[in-house]
């Protein structure tokens, strides 16, 4: 339909009527309008996809940039993205079972015994599959305390400084200062002493080595010469078993050589070169391995269901292929390995590992490098349970990390968790009696490390950082973890009185009956009705002049009475609307030396700090754990 907007007749062109700028077609106008809208939508979608793709591709780059620059060197194998995710067997440092001597106080004796411990390093963003169900995220459960948190058992004891072959009982008694009931043997002459040294010296041992000779006579015994004499000189011999080499223990560092198996399942007929290339190996390396395997299996093709097992020697970011094997189903076909001259030759079947038989399982532990990473909370539980830790032990880690980690945030590929805990046997499975001794967690740029320690003064067990400060907060800022912030500290118009008035606390809204927890350890100062408008009120006195006040409660928990001791996280009451209140909420106040302060802004002191003998013993315990784990000492910072 044509609609005219002018008085002049339309122009003609070659006898055909042409549109004029003074005329417009509604059909043409609607088509142009729809074309513009469609173009804008398509460009917006393309721009969003491009920006989203750039954000996703930045994640592996961030992970790569987190590695020290000096380790970005040319490698024999360059790991890349996989077309088909493969199961990668854990490296030796990812999971390690070790026998450790510990000492436990039993009555008046100290019992030293060996027991297995597991040290695990977990990449949390991997596709771990939990071996059992775990509780859903609930902030109240995380911050609240239960009876098991009140006093850990200390069944494991402390790390003993020396290894023992079997269980040893030690008892310390006071040296007798008065006459002893024991008969004193007659004194020995010098000749008898030297004869004893000669006869007993031949059977003395130093660790696992036998010492065959000792000094028999002190060269200074018959001389008044004060000159330095080398007492270390002398003839000694170490008796070793045949084909045994004695070497000093070497701590595991990022540059320590480690062996790992890369398991590549073949899901369709393909060549050896393509299977390795799709898994991230450079083409020259893939051709080299194929050239050695093909003559032995009679073809350079792999069949559907085959498994290619690549043995890699890793050192930091550098990796070198030292072995390659082909399996058809569960049957070993062929293996080639490097000899002493760095040439691949036919070899025997390597020791069997479960990763070969489970190569086609979907429970791959490869790390996803793009989207849909789980939450921090789920990542910790899935990894910990898959590595043999119990739900209670994992819940303890969650509680200890709660003050520094956002459990609702999405995991990053670089997030890791290292733990050291006692286990039942060499299988590395923790039990109800297992105890957590050490945790090192890294989330983004934040690293948290803490050690278990039993205070010799009061026997209490807690977790401390490397400086001997408790990892637990002195006071929490929110007594209703799942509450909603409604009103802050400061001047405001009173909702009932109708005029401006100082609001001396913070309001947290929650449904009636929601649990209220104590923000810290302390003593109940008041628990009951307040006639000044606070309704059911509880006041807890903490250390160093701090007090916390909980108001408008629907009810106060049983046992919360003046003089009672409460623990941080203990449920002390429930949200209500008693007193001068317009709805269910908790009016929470913090009092410091008699003055009410803003609970959300006041600077809170740290937790308990070890001092004196307790700190010295903690440093000894920390040093023993660090030595067992091969941790590097923290850098020393000079100060003026």
Share of residues in helices = 10-25%
Q: If classified by CATH, what would the architecture of the domain at 484-597 be?
A: Distorted Sandwich
Name of the level-1 CATH class of the domain at 484-597: Mainly Beta
- CATH topology of the domain at 484-597, anyone? Glucose Permease (Domain IIA)
**Sheet/helix structural class:** alpha+beta
Question: Mind sketching the topology for me?
Answer:
Elements: E1 2-4, E2 12-13, E3 16-17, E4 23-25, H1 26-65, E5 95-106, E6 109-123, H2 139-143, H3 147-150, E7 158-159, E8 168-171, H4 190-201, E9 205-206, E10 209-211, E11 238-239, E12 258-265, E13 270-271, H5 272-278, H6 283-297, E14 301-302, E15 306-315, E16 318-328, E17 331-338, E18 344-346, H7 354-357, H8 376-386, H9 391-401, E19 416-422, E20 436-443, E21 446-454, E22 461-464, E23 484-487, E24 490-493, E25 500-503, E26 506-509, E27 515-517, E28 522-530, E29 535-541, E30 546-556, E31 565-566, E32 571-575, E33 585-592, E34 595-597, H10 612-629
Antiparallel strand pairs: 1-4, 2-3, 5-6, 5-7, 6-8, 6-19, 9-10, 10-11, 12-15, 13-14, 15-16, 16-17, 17-18, 19-20, 20-21, 21-22, 23-26, 24-25, 26-33, 27-32, 28-29, 28-31, 29-30, 30-32, 30-33, 33-34
Helix pairs in contact: 5-6, 8-9
Description:
This protein is of the alpha+beta class and 640 residues long. Helix 5 runs antiparallel to helix 6 (283-297) and helix 8 (376-386) packs antiparallel against helix 9 (391-401). Among the domains are: 257-360, Nuclear Transport Factor 2, Chain: A (Roll), CATH 3.10.450; 484-597, Glucose Permease (Domain IIA) (Distorted Sandwich), CATH 2.70.70.10. The relative contact order is 0.11. It starts with a strand and ends in an 11-residue tail after the last helix.
């Amino acid at each position: 339909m044509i609609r005219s907007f002018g008085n002049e007749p339309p122009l003609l062109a070659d006898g055909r009527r042409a549109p004029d700028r003074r005329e417009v077609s509604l059909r043409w106008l609607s088509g142009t309008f729809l074309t513009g809208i469609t173009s804008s939508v398509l460009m917006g979608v393309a721009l969003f996809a491009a920006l989203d793709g750039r954000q996703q591709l930045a994640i592996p780059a961030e992970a790569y940039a987190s590695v020290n620059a000096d380790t970005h060197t040319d490698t024999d194998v360059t790991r890349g993205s996989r077309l088909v995710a493969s199961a990668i067997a854990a490296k030796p440092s990812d999971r390690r079972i070790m026998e450790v001597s510990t000492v436990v106080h039993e009555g008046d004796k100290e019992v030293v015994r060996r027991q297995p411990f597991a040290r695990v390093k977990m990449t949390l963003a991997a596709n771990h599959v939990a071996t059992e169900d775990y509780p859903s995220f609930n902030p109240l459960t995380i911050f609240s305390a239960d009876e098991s948190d009140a006093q850990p058992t200390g069944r494991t004891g402390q790390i003993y400084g020396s290894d023992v072959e079997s269980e040893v009982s030690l008892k310390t008694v006071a040296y007798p200062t008065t006459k002893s009931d024991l008969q004193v043997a007659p004194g020995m002459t010098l000749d008898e002493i030297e004869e004893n040294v000669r006869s007993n010296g031949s059977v003395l041992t130093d660790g696992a080595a036998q010492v065959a000779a000792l000094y028999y006579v002190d060269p200074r015994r018959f001389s008044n010469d004060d000159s330095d004499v080398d007492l270390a000189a002398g003839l000694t011999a170490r008796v070793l078993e045949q084909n045994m080499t004695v070497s000093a223990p070497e701590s595991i560092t990022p540059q320590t050589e480690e062996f790992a198996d890369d398991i590549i399942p073949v899901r369709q007929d393909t060549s050896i070169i393509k299977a390795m290339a799709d898994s991230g190996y450079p083409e020259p390396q893939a051709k080299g391995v194929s050239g050695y395997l093909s003559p032995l299996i009679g073809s350079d093709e792999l069949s559907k269901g085959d498994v290619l097992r690549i043995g890699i020697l890793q050192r930091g970011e550098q990796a070198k292929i030292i072995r390659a094997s082909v399996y058809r189903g569960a049957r070993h076909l062929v293996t080639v390995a490097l000899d002493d001259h760095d040439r691949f030759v036919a070899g025997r079947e390597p020791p069997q590992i479960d990763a070969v038989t489970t190569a086609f399982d979907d429970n791959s532990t490869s790390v996803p490098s793009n989207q849909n990473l789980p939450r921090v909370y789920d990542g910790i539980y899935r990894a910990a349970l898959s590595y043999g830790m119990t739900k209670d032990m994992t819940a303890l880690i969650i509680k200890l990390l709660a003050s520094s980690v956002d459990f609702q945030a999405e995991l990053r590929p670089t997030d890791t968790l290292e733990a050291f805990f006692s286990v039942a046997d060499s299988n590395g499975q923790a039990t109800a009696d297992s105890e957590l001794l050490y945790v090192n967690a890294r989330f983004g740029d934040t690293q948290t490390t803490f050690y278990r320690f039993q205070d010799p003064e009061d026997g209490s067990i807690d977790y401390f950082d490397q400086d001997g400060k408790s990892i637990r907060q002195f006071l929490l800022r929110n007594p209703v973890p799942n509450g909603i912030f409604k009103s802050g500290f400061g001047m405001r118009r009173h909702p009932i009185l109708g005029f401006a008035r100082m609001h001396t606390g913070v309001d947290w809204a929650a449904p009636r009956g929601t649990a209220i927890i104590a923000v810290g350890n302390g003593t109940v100062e008041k628990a009951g009705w307040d006639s000044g408008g606070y309704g059911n009120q509880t006041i807890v006195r903490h250390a160093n002049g701090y007090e916390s006040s909980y108001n408008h409660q629907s009810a106060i928990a049983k046992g919360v009475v003046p003089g009672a001791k409460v623990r941080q996280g203990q449920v002390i009451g429930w949200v209500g609307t008693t007193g001068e209140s317009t709805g269910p909420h908790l009016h929470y106040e913090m009092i410091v030396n008699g003055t009410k302060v803003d609970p959300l802004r006041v600077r809170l002191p740290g937790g308990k700090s070890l001092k004196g003998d307790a700190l010295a013993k903690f440093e000894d315990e920390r040093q023993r754990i660090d030595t067992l784990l091969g941790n590097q000492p923290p850098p020393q910072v000079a100060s003026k």
